[in-house]
Amino acid sequence: MDIEEGGLLEQEPAGKSAGSPLANDVLESSDHQLAFERLSTAAYLLRGWIWETDADGRFTYLSDSVLHFSGRPAEWHYGKTREDLGNYVVNPASLEDIREKVAAGEPFGPVEYQRIQNGQPFWMRTRGLPVFDKQGNLKGYRGVAYDITTEVQQRECEFACNEKVDRALEILSATVDCFPGAVSVYDHELKLAFANSKYYALLDLPMAQFPVGARYIDLLYFLGERGELRGGELSDVIANHMEMAQSGEIHTFCRTRPNGMCIEVASVPLPGGGFVRTYTDVTAVSELRWKLQSSEREIQQLKARLNAAQLEIDRLQTTTHRAAG
């Protein structure tokens, strides 16, 4: 790799430079060659290249690996500033940040920006350190740059996917809100992942106390202490509910709240753990069912009385016939 004599690679003795640590290295010509071959190889393996500019920001050196990533040979860049290299279409403020740092003789980066290279977008990340002579005058900058096009595309893809997911969740939330009952979703750690507004209203739960992330076991203790879980000692009842939630099975049951409301609860397990649970106010249905059952009992009692009366009538008729004969 050829390095021009008198370029930025000719460093001053240690202690005489006010610049970056790289500016204090004193190497023989052959050592320069070996050092930069090593650095160039390392930069290539890291999907990048080494660059140098003069005090006016014009490129004086780039490692050969720049051709692989940018599609332009190193010599094509020489004498050009960053503004000359291509059409910067994204975040032009990043170049202004570099200019301000260079004007102040300060290190810059990492800075990300995009160029249009052969009609294609090309993203890169760069950072640089100032190089000074022994009098403290700025000779230029030395730095590294990396091709981050794939990284940026992945970020954009993730952002687009997240937007789609957020939109889908908004639609799902609106759909669930139209459901006549309450809905809650608990994840594999049995923490609340989603709940519609009816969930808090139907169960009289304080939203601030049970936000997304609240533990299911805390809900059980809250309901138990309020007298809404029956069937034995509270610790045993809660243990049964936790076992039910972790069983991975479908469960449906009804419970009556202290205010007389009857709630039908349906729990469906989720792949990987957790469950979706719906709560429906079936008080009216329960009361109707109770009334029907009560009516059925009354009907059965009437039928029994009618049967007994019929038997008595039959007996009296038989006795009368016998007396007449």
Overview of this protein structure:
The structure is a single chain. With 325 residues, the chain is α+β, with helices and mostly antiparallel strands. 42% of the residues lie in helices and 23% in strands. It is built from 9 helices and 10 strands. The chain has helices spanning 29-45, 66-70, 74-77, 93-103, 149-177, 197-203, 216-225, 234-246, 283-324; strands spanning 48-54, 59-62, 108-117, 120-132, 138-147, 182-186, 192-195, 251-256, 262-269, 275-281. It is rod-shaped. The protein starts with 28 loop residues before the first helix and ends with a helix. Mean pLDDT is 81; it is low at 1-27.
Any key phrases for this structure?
about 325 residues, alpha+beta, 10 strands
What structural class do you assign from the helix and strand content? alpha+beta
Low-confidence stretches: 1-27
- Rg over CA atoms: 41 Å
The count of DSSP E runs of length 2 or more, i.e. the number of strands, is: 10
Strand fraction: 15-25%
Q: What is the helix tally? A: 9
> Mean of residue pLDDT?
81
What can be said about the biggest beta sheet? 5 strands, antiparallel
Helix-strand pattern, N to C? Answer: HEEHHHEEEHEEHHHEEEH
